[in-house]
UniProtKB/TrEMBL annotation:
<feature type="region of interest" description="Disordered">
    <location>
        <begin position="21"/>
        <end position="49"/>
    </location>
</feature>
<keyword id="KW-0378">Hydrolase</keyword>
<dbReference type="InterPro" id="IPR047187">
    <property type="entry name" value="SF1_C_Upf1"/>
</dbReference>
<feature type="domain" description="DNA2/NAM7 helicase helicase">
    <location>
        <begin position="160"/>
        <end position="232"/>
    </location>
</feature>
<protein>
    <recommendedName>
        <fullName>AAA+ ATPase domain-containing protein</fullName>
    </recommendedName>
</protein>
<dbReference type="InterPro" id="IPR050534">
    <property type="entry name" value="Coronavir_polyprotein_1ab"/>
</dbReference>
<dbReference type="GO" id="GO:0005694">
    <property type="term" value="C:chromosome"/>
</dbReference>
<dbReference type="GO" id="GO:0005524">
    <property type="term" value="F:ATP binding"/>
</dbReference>
<dbReference type="InterPro" id="IPR027417">
    <property type="entry name" value="P-loop_NTPase"/>
</dbReference>
<keyword id="KW-0547">Nucleotide-binding</keyword>
<dbReference type="Pfam" id="PF13086">
    <property type="entry name" value="AAA_11"/>
</dbReference>
<dbReference type="GO" id="GO:0016787">
    <property type="term" value="F:hydrolase activity"/>
</dbReference>
<keyword id="KW-0067">ATP-binding</keyword>
<feature type="domain" description="DNA2/NAM7 helicase helicase">
    <location>
        <begin position="62"/>
        <end position="141"/>
    </location>
</feature>
<comment type="similarity">
    <text>Belongs to the DNA2/NAM7 helicase family.</text>
</comment>
<dbReference type="InterPro" id="IPR041679">
    <property type="entry name" value="DNA2/NAM7-like_C"/>
</dbReference>
<dbReference type="GO" id="GO:0043139">
    <property type="term" value="F:5'-3' DNA helicase activity"/>
</dbReference>
Length: 470
């Protein structure tokens, strides 16, 4: 456990046990015995939610078995952890939980929260789509001003805010936004926090303080993706880069696992499922994804390919971020060819771990298309694209050096995020000599290049007109 803990006097007693640092626990026998009794009582409270029967609504019936199981768990206990790998319908599950609580008790007050404004917006939109009124707090929302005018608190006069909040059964905001003064006296029967594996413990405490003593807490996340962003070395040493979500799982708290993904072509799921999810993540049987045209996929009906760029071409910019000009040049050619093939699937997404490489690629696209390139292409860092998806992802690994140093690419969570963003196709551009020296990338290369024979040399692509290929 971390030994830096925010003041938690307002956190309900039955949840506070999870926030107490190890160092504060006494070795005194009597106090240990007393502590065990209290923990036992708390655990009893955490598993005695009277809302134990799910109502078979249209939304509930649409869920798969693992999703239904997660919803039922939320109805039966006061603390529920739900691990949702990419594309497994976490927001759908959150909506179903809210619906069930509202059906079983129409006076239930609910807070749905997320680490980011995007998460809070998505939760709010999905609830409204399912005919549940939701009030969105915060100035960071990017919901359409006209379409969601009655949903956004900022559209009401300040004198009306207290009344509007009091009358709202469901409220959506970010974790930090839960500290809004309009919620000062508000307490909730149910709090759902999405992206909880990305939340720092301090941020998560803010909505948790709004939970009634008898309330229910649902944490939804995936600790196999990016963790909380902590820049302080001091804080990292004391465990604050581990989310409460992950810490509870590591301490043996049961977790509901959403086992079916609806995003990726089945070929794109195989490696991540085996490497990060113990082979438990499967693809929905009725999911159909067509292999994108405009790229010479080496294996028919296998939209996953590694493109090797020979030589050591990485360099550092003035801010010490890494770039690889040869990779950038090839990636722009690949992306442009995809666009020329009557592309109708939204923007083509290019992802890289490094800011300098992102800027390099953006400059090359700007030289070709002018500022209009943003209509067709999206260039992002890995961290900036978590939670999003795209039809085709082109990934620039960048690292190519004689020291075989892969930098950020050794971080498992970042690799998992990168591999699980595309819906229909993934093209990874990198140096096989450097990447293969890192254990995780060596496994991935064995899976793609050796097992599935999906490999191209950049020199062949440079010499050929890609548009002539399928």
């Amino acid at each position: 456990m971390s030994n830096i803990v925010a003041p938690c006097s307002e956190v309900p007693d039955n949840f506070r046990q999870f926030l107490v640092p190890e160092e504060t626990k006494t070795n005194d026998t009597e106090k240990d015995a007393d502590k065990n009794v209290k923990t036992s009582k708390s655990d009893a409270n955490l598993s005695s939610n009277p809302l134990s029967v799910s109502v078979k609504t249209h939304l509930f019936q649409q869920l798969n078995n693992s999703q239904k199981k997660a919803v039922k768990s939320a109805l039966q206990q006061n603390l529920t952890l739900i691990q949702g790998p990419p594309g497994t319908g976490k927001t759908q599950v959150a909506s179903a939980i809210v619906e069930q609580f509202r059906i079983l008790n129409e006076n239930t007050k609910i807070l749905v929260s997320g680490f980011s404004n995007i998460a809070a917006d998505v939760l709010c939109k999905r609830l409204i789509e399912h005919q549940m009124d939701c009030l969105r707090l915060g100035v960071g929302s990017i919901l359409d001003e006209q379409k969601y005018r009655g949903v956004l608190l900022r559209h009401y006069g300040k004198k009306e805010w207290a009344k509007v909040v009091e009358q709202s059964a469901i409220i959506s905001c970010t974790c930090v936004g839960a500290a809004n003064v309009v919620l000062k006296k508000k307490k909730f029967d149910l709090i759902i926090i999405d992206e909880s594996s990305q939340c720092t413990e301090m941020a998560l405490l803010t909505p948790l303080r709004k939970l009634k003593p008898t309330g229910s807490l649902v944490l939804i996340g995936d600790h196999k993706q990016l963790p909380p962003t902590i820049k302080s070395v001091y804080a990292k040493k004391r465990g604050l880069d581990t989310s409460l979500f992950e810490r509870l799982i590591n301490n043996g708290r049961p977790v509901e696992f959403l086992d079916t993904q609806y995003r990726m072509h089945h070929a794109l799921t195989e490696f991540s499922s085996m490497e990060f999810y113990n082979g438990q993540l499967k693809t929905a049987e009725d999911l159909k994804r067509h292999v994108p045209k405009g790229f010479p996929w080496p294996v028919r009906d296998y939209p996953l390919c590694f493109v090797h760029v020979d030589g050591f071409h990485e360099a550092r910019d003035m801010w010490m971020s890494t770039e690889n000009d040869k990779e950038a040049h090839l990636i722009v050619k690949i992306a442009s060819t995809l666009l020329q093939q009557n592309w109708r699937h939204g923007r083509i997404t290019i992802i890289t771990p490094y800011r300098a490489q992102r800027e390099n690629i953006e400059e090359k696209l700007n030289d070709l298309y002018g500022r209009a390139y943003k209509q067709w292409f999206e260039v992002c860092t890995v961290d900036g694209f978590q939670g999003n998806e795209s039809e085709v992802i082109i990934f620039s690994a960048v690292r190519a050096n004689e020291m075989n140093d892969v930098g950020f690419l050794r971080e498992r969570a970042r690799v998992n995020v990168m591999l699980t963003r595309p819906r229909s196709g993934l093209i990874v551009v990198g140096n096989i000599h450097t990447l293969s020296k890192e254990m995780l990338w060596n496994k991935w290369l064995e899976h793609v290049v050796i097992k599935n024979k999906s490999f191209l040399d950049s020199r062949i692509l440079e010499q050929n007109d890609l548009s002539s290929n399928r």
